[in-house]
Amino acid sequence: MKFVAEINVMPKKELLDPQGKAVKMGLKHLHIDNVKDVRIGKHIVLTLEAASSQEAREIVDNACQKLLANVIMEDYSFEIRELQESLKQ
Amino acid sequence: MKFVAEINVMPKKELLDPQGKAVKMGLKHLHIDNVKDVRIGKHIVLTLEAASSQEAREIVDNACQKLLANVIMEDYSFEIRELQESLKQ
Question: Where is the signal peptide (chains A, B) (predicted)?
C-alpha cells in the first residue's frame, strides 16, 4: 500500500525563532502590520510503501526521530493518508 | 479578532528538489528504505489581528504573494482558524 505523510517540524515554543523575527520585520516593511507573531519550520511530504497505516506511522516516526527533526530543539507532528493507486487500463 | 494561519510553501512539483533527494539518500543510509519520494518546504505559522476571517485570508494571501513564497518557483496553501481569547478573570 502507498501512503503520503505530511510532516511539520517546528522550533520548540520556548526557543527564540530569529527567522520568524526577521520575516515579521519584513512584513512590517511591506506595511503588513497586523501580524503579531511568525514561526517558521519545515513542511516535509513523504511518499512511502507500507503494509498498513500503523506501519506507515512507525516508519514516519522513526524517520523523524533519526533524521527529519532535531528532537532537542524541534517538535514534529504528522498526518498520514493512503494514496489511492489510479486504476490501470 | 485574533487568527492563526498555518501556511505550507512547497517547491512546484515540476521543479527538482535537491534537498528532498538528499534527505531520501539519508533515510536510505539509515535503512529506512520504503520512502519513495521526499519533498521539503516551509511551514509558517502566523498569528494576526483581523476584523473577519475573510480579511485574515486577504492579509495572509498578500503576505504570501509579497514575501513568504517565491511564486515563480513555489506553491503555497494555508488554513486559517480563529484564536479563542482566554476569558480574563
Answer: none
ipTM summary value: 0.89
Which A residues in the span 12-71 are in contact with B, Cβ-Cβ below 8 Å?
A: 23, 26-27, 30, 32, 34-50, 59, 62-63, 66-68
Q: Let me know if residue A88 belongs to a domain.
A: no
B54 found inside a domain: yes
B54 CB neighbour count, 10 Å cutoff: 10
pLDDT category of residue B89 using cuts at 50, 70 and 90: very low
**Residue-level pLDDT at A55:** 96
**Domain range enclosing A8:** 2-82
For the domain that residue B53 is a member of, what is the CATH number? Answer: 3.30.1280.10
Q: Which of A34, A70, A75, A79 should one mutate to test binding to chain B, selecting the residue with the greatest count of B CBs within 10 A?
A: A34
Q: How far is the alpha carbon of A89 from chain B, nearest alpha carbon, in Å? A: 23
Element (H, E) at A29: helix A18-29
